[in-house]
């Protein structure tokens, strides 16, 4: 675990350098702060924050020189004691150009703002769409244009949006700040126009410089497109703080909170206890003792459906319902005074049935749900199929998918197949979803996939009267497992925004607390309905 955490630290430090030291130096020579400097100047010191979409773009676009952190930094944090989402273009990465993953990351920020009724602050410094990939970012529903649609929706919902134009803001990207409630601009560096001077000249023959075309003086004194101009980044960020300071409150009172009590175990226990061998059993209850408030756990149906642990608890004072995969091998009592050995991390019919009922209870009582995934999937085989594992799994998925209380998901270890779905994977709208460095995410493990694909390959070759010898089988298996294991990495998932980032396990408690506080800004009004439940 220490090695994994050290790797996480090194990768995080590299991300904070954006496009590299030379690009940072050129950026600062223009009198501009970096994306992270702008964010830290804006955020309340000594208050917690969490990054959204860290490692987005990891391993992508290598033929284009890469796009570290998707060229945009997004944090959930506090400005003037008000929880906000801050979106800051990193102009040291391809001049802040928008890659497909950049759009996906920005849409995620807006989604979080909408779900939780959080003000969103855009620190704009972008050259616009990355043209070589325009076909992957321009026209589709979840592409660049969706951001401006969300600007309009956020405004209609009454969610404050503040934009600071701190660099170029070109073409379609010009709509983002101007569709915000407040549009501020920095003199000398900020500019906003639908077409830059080169395009204007080639299109209509007009010769004009960018500053006159769309600089601070033009838009504050002539067009009225921007509200006010400021001499530098710091002055502009101070103005944002001043505006946020005046916002009226929107805090709801949906969820129970009491004074926080420290966990029974020190958070360092999370680092030392979890086995690195993904097949080795461990007790999930022990992990929870380093996350939840001491003495707050009240377990639901402890002696039934033991491969899923369901418990009420408090985290940093907030009431939560926890659904977690139990990794120990357990004994399950069956009719006729018999017992069955059940494998840890596997969802059996009784566990799915228990989890569905617990999830429904939490929705009835307005208790936020926390999912801790270390799941290899649902139990397979004739006994399980005849016992109705599919309908019991469907019942759990139905109960979870229709939840109206906020859900938060953490991938502790394995996250395979339909187990990912039932335990509230990304497709099921968790408010926040993070992976620990120990996470693995795929349809199945590399070993299982390798054996399955090898069997298919052998059958295909056998139909052609070709037999593989033992050495050829080993080589086939090695190649398949190598490719598959690369895709299991949490960085592979984070690079594609399947999770909101990879965290030190000790951050779990903080993120849950911040997530519930964010959710508590929006009144919970939806009625919980599950539709047709399989019985």
Automatic annotation (TrEMBL):
<dbReference type="InterPro" id="IPR029045">
    <property type="entry name" value="ClpP/crotonase-like_dom_sf"/>
</dbReference>
<dbReference type="InterPro" id="IPR034733">
    <property type="entry name" value="AcCoA_carboxyl_beta"/>
</dbReference>
<dbReference type="InterPro" id="IPR045190">
    <property type="entry name" value="MCCB/AccD1-like"/>
</dbReference>
<dbReference type="Pfam" id="PF01039">
    <property type="entry name" value="Carboxyl_trans"/>
</dbReference>
<dbReference type="GO" id="GO:0016874">
    <property type="term" value="F:ligase activity"/>
</dbReference>
<feature type="domain" description="CoA carboxyltransferase N-terminal">
    <location>
        <begin position="1"/>
        <end position="259"/>
    </location>
</feature>
<dbReference type="InterPro" id="IPR011763">
    <property type="entry name" value="COA_CT_C"/>
</dbReference>
<keyword id="KW-0436">Ligase</keyword>
<feature type="domain" description="CoA carboxyltransferase C-terminal">
    <location>
        <begin position="266"/>
        <end position="526"/>
    </location>
</feature>
<protein>
    <submittedName>
        <fullName>Acyl-CoA carboxylase subunit beta</fullName>
        <ecNumber>6.-.-.-</ecNumber>
    </submittedName>
</protein>
<dbReference type="InterPro" id="IPR011762">
    <property type="entry name" value="COA_CT_N"/>
</dbReference>
């Amino acid at each position: 675990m220490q090695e994994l955490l050290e790797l996480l630290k090194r990768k995080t430090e590299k991300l904070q350098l954006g496009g590299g030291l030379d690009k940072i130096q050129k950026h600062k020579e223009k009198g501009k702060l970096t994306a992270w400097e702008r964010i830290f100047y804006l955020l309340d010191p000594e208050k917690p924050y969490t990054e959204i979409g860290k490692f987005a773009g990891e391993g992508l676009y290598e033929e284009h020189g890469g796009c570290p952190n998707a060229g945009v930094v997004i944090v959930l944090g506090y400005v003037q004691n008000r929880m906000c989402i801050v979106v800051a273009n990193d102009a040291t990465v391809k001049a802040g150009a928008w890659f497909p993953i950049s759009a996906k990351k920005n849409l995620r920020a807006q989604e979080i703002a909408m779900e939780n009724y959080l003000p969103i602050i855009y620190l704009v410094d972008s050259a616009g769409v990355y043209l070589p990939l325009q076909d992957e970012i321009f026209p589709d529903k979840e592409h660049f244009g969706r951001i401006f649609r969300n600007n309009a929706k956020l405004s209609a919902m009454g969610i404050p949006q503040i934009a600071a134009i701190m660099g170029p803001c070109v073409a379609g990207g010009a709509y983002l700040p101007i569709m915000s409630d407040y549009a501020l601009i920095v003199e000398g560096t900020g500019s906003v126009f639908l077409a830059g001077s080169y395009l204007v000249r080639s299109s209509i023959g007009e010769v004009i410089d960018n500053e006159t075309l769309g600089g601070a003086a033009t838009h504050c004194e002539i067009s009225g497109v921007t509200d006010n101009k400021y001499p530098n980044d710091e002055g502009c960020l101070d103005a944002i703080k001043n505006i946020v300071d005046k916002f009226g409150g929107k805090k709801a009172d949906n969820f129970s909170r009491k004074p926080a009590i420290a966990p029974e175990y020190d958070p360092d226990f999370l680092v030392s206890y979890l086995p690195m061998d993904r097949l080795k059993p461990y007790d999930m209850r022990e992990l929870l003792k380093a996350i939840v408030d001491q003495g707050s756990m009240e377990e639901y149906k402890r002696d039934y459906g033991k491969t899923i642990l369901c418990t009420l608890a408090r985290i940093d004072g907030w009431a939560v319902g926890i659904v977690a995969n139990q990794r120990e091998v357990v004994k399950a009592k069956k009719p006729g005074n018999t017992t069955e050995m059940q494998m840890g991390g596997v969802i059996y019919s009784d566990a799915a049935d228990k989890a569905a009922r617990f999830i429904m209870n939490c929705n009835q009582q307005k208790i936020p749900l926390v999912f801790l995934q270390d799941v290899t999937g649902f139990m397979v085989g004739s006994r399980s199929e005849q016992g109705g594992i599919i309908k019991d799994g469907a019942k759990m998925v139905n109960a979870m998918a229709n939840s109206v209380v906020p859900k938060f998901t953490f991938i502790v270890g394995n996250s395979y197949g339909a187990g990912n779905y039932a335990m509230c994977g990304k497709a099921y709208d968790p408010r926040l979803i993070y992976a620990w460095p120990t996470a693995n995410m795929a349809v199945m493990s590399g070993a299982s996939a390798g054996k399955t694909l090898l069997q298919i390959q052998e059958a295909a070759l056998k139909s052609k009267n070709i037999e593989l010898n033992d050495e050829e089988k080993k080589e086939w298996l090695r190649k398949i497992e190598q490719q598959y294991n690369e895709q299991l990495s949490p960085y592979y998932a984070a690079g594609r925004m399947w999770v909101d980032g990879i965290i030190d396990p000790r951050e779990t408690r903080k993120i849950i607390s911040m997530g519930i506080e964010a959710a508590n800004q929006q009144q919970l009004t939806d009625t919980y309905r599950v539709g047709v439940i399989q019985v």
